[in-house]
## 1
Amino acid sequence: MCSQSLRRGYTTGTCAQAATKAAMLLLFGISKADELTDVRVELPKGERLNLEIRDIKIEYKETEKFPHTVSCAVKKDSGDDPDITDGIFVYSKVRRMVSSGEGRVIRLDGGRGIGRVTRPGLDQPVGAAAINRIPRQMITREAEAICEEIGYEGEIDIELSVPDGEELAKKTFNPRLGVEGGLSILGTSGIVEPMSEQAILDTIYLDMKVKIKGQKSGKKILIMAPGNYGLEFLKEAYGIEEDEVVKCSNFIGQSIDMAKELQCDALLLAGHIGKLVKVAGGIMNTHSRWADSRMELLAAGALRAGFSAEKSRELLECATADDALSRCTKEEQESLMYQVMEKIQEYLRMRAGEEMLIEAVIFSKVYGILGKTSRADEIAAAKFRECDGN
């Protein structure tokens, strides 16, 4: 299996990071507007990118030498990924504020075209701008670094905006999720990986093949996770390193098929409830453009667990899985997840057949491990022993 390499892009979070760095450099006179064409930023995993800076605007106060407000933009490039935000301009406006005497303070908020969180359970609290945690860290880190460099101990306001964000957001899942009025600033790695299905499947297949070939034990064991959250969880919960995990993206079913083709003996699927709960409905491609029945499946599980119709309807109206779980007591969570895991196990085994042992573990960033199928720990322990050389 082979495919042509696809071009990667960068996230709205990376655009905002670069625009903020450029605006800060200009705000304090470290760079000049007629010379600043691009900036270099470091992404969460250490990768560095140079991004072009557009549409610089500088405002001065008559009595001050340095600018009072600077705005810069970066044009988003999604690479070969079919992304609705490709080509948008992400702006960052930074301004120096009168110090309140509290020392250095950096505030970050969203302006025009940036959504607001209206329902609990998302990455940010209700009322906050929809700028997710890791992009917030990327953006404020740039501002902090420049303030530190020049010894500035005052206050800085950063406002992000996307001029077309409000209209574009209507074509996304944001309104359904509880983000109103604009787009979200997203990204956990800073990079947009191309979503060509065949290219990703080719990569998954090759990764599985290499991992199976490199195993020392007689058993062919694979550990699989859709994305970065799952990789972090497997490291924390089971001590399984990232390079031992197959990253399957949204392609759960096709990845299971490929594992069977490679005659894998056992496969453990680990992932966040917001994605893997879909498997409880037999949904084997978890991308939101194919299916988004998370709340319906949780409500169905609640009914099977004996919840009242009123309680089940309450879960059905939630924005996220974590939001739904927050409406449940610990005992209710356990009974609900028991039902969810039963259905997940049923559909995984239906797809895998009798030739391969397949198990799953689901977690939440808020609640930790939520559920496991019957032999999940057994597979994880066997993989850990193999990697540990025991």
Note: The longest strand covers residues 89-97.
## 2
Amino acid sequence: MTDSNLPPCITGLMGSDGLLGPGVSLVQTHISYVLIGDTEVLKVKKPVDFGFLDFTTLEKRRFFCHEELRLNRRLCPDVYQDVVPIGMDDKGSNLAGLGEVVEYGVLMRRMPEAGMMGRLIAAGRVDKKTIDAIVAILVPFYRQAATGGEINELGRAGAVAVNVTENFDQTRAMVGSGGLDRSRFDRLVAWSREFLAKTELFAARVEAGRVREGHGDLYSANICIEDLKKIHIFDCIEFNQRFRCCDVASDIAFLAMDLDFHGLNGLSNYLLASFGEKSGDDGLMEIATFYKVYRAYVRGKIGLFTANAPEVDAATAATALAGAERYFSLADSYISNNPS
């Protein structure tokens, strides 16, 4: 999207000398405009509907901005500052809600780029001490997170199957076109279905209190490590309860899978063992592989979507396709070593 196609309120904020300061840069995702200033960041939701999320009305965007603030303050109270109304008056855009309120945004403190976990992994600066510090944050977080009632139901086999089956349905038409071949797809589908038939295992996890209102997107891209005493785990899923409310094992397995993806298998195993021990979760390992397969497939799916998007250039598409193939290969390696 070119600047001329951006909403006027966004272009106005980029050119302002207001709260975000001069020289604001813009990063876009498929669901957000992210305006980055020197010390603060403003995240504005796009008016899109992808089925699993619906931001099509101003009221919905306002609601989910407040949900993003509420949920992320659990782990990042000093990063997520406020929900601000974006107004348009005869002077242009403003963050005070003056004139007509046309959007809402989540105002955040800018975290240091040098501390982003992906960068630290690439530099070889993530070790067991890093994992210990993350586990020390996550264990009490999940212990205190909401549970029971509707949340618990989302951890049962039938509810989990909705998410797993959705992934397969969304990628079925792309099988064989690159990134995911038919035999691998069929193996992953069959293995996942067999595991989901273990309904008593999922029920036991519910009864043990292991299903919580968690994070939903727990991997290195959403972790910033300023130092071992100041770790931010941010950008939890606010837009869909069934992605956020899950077995704790699903969240922890996502980070473990991500470490595997980056070649840190020893740290991946250490994370699972350490979290299991410190949280008293003796059954974590029994279900962790299933959720690692699920999470790897989700990341592969996103790669396929990116590679097949018409607006994506050839180089980006090739990179996304190669990444997708790596994720699907990783998922396949898990099931090869762990028959259901």
Note: The chain has a mean pLDDT of 93.
## 3
Amino acid sequence: MECNYCPFECGVDRQLKLGVCKAPAEFTVAKVMAHFWEEPCISGQRGSGTVFFAHCNAACLFCQNYKISQLRFPKAQIYQDEEFIELCRNFVKETRVHNLNLVSPTHYAGRLLRILPRLKQEISPLPIVWNSNGYEKESVIEELAGLVDVFLPDFKYADNTLAVKFSRLPGYFEYACRAIAAMQKVAGDPLFDQDGIIQRGVIIRHLILPGQIENSKRVLAWIAENLGTQSYISLMSQYYPVHRAAEVPELNRRLTEEEYREVEEYLFALGFESGFLQDLDSNSADYTPQF
């Protein structure tokens, strides 16, 4: 089966040849865990049931999960469809987590579309979270309607030059704009249960990069103008130099408090009222899962 499920449209049969993401055809899972460091409405008191897929269609120089996204990860486990469904069903049952959180699922979109109807039935009523880098095809997001309850996309770049330089993602801005707009249409406005855990909707994450304040402002301005200031924003300060960040001088430092406050003030000036902010002490490896 040719894989054309992400913007790279490699068109390869991954049983025979690897594409840009380097992922095999079968589900390759690096870690399954109850994650307590997502947004409060995702993690809650019992944690978010995160399934970290190995590999990625991006190659971010500063990826905090680079060990599983870009390097060969020998601990990763291979699962066929039925095995993956069983893994997820047993995990959420044993841990009583608030949701099933699929992290970096885009390169397995084709396979997930095939099994999500069954998986959703197996773990009901828990919501399924699509936790991605935002480099998606609008058509694939539309196919996820009724199968995914919560979308948790990154919106990394409004500047395509930065997207290529830092993450090897050509045309990122245009793809992310269309994909996230489609997520809003598919999932609707955020809906929370009595404990404040999100059951449906979209939370847009934006990680502020050092020295790239204008990029952040352009991302927020686009969201305000095109999706509305009622959108839930997670403004993230957790950047720290890791992986290959030292190769680019402007990335080889942490975010300053002044940089974060400037973007935060711009967020409020645009009229956003819903979402999450981070303290600067979040920019630590202590909050990155150990793989």
Note: The chain is about 35% helix and 20% strand.
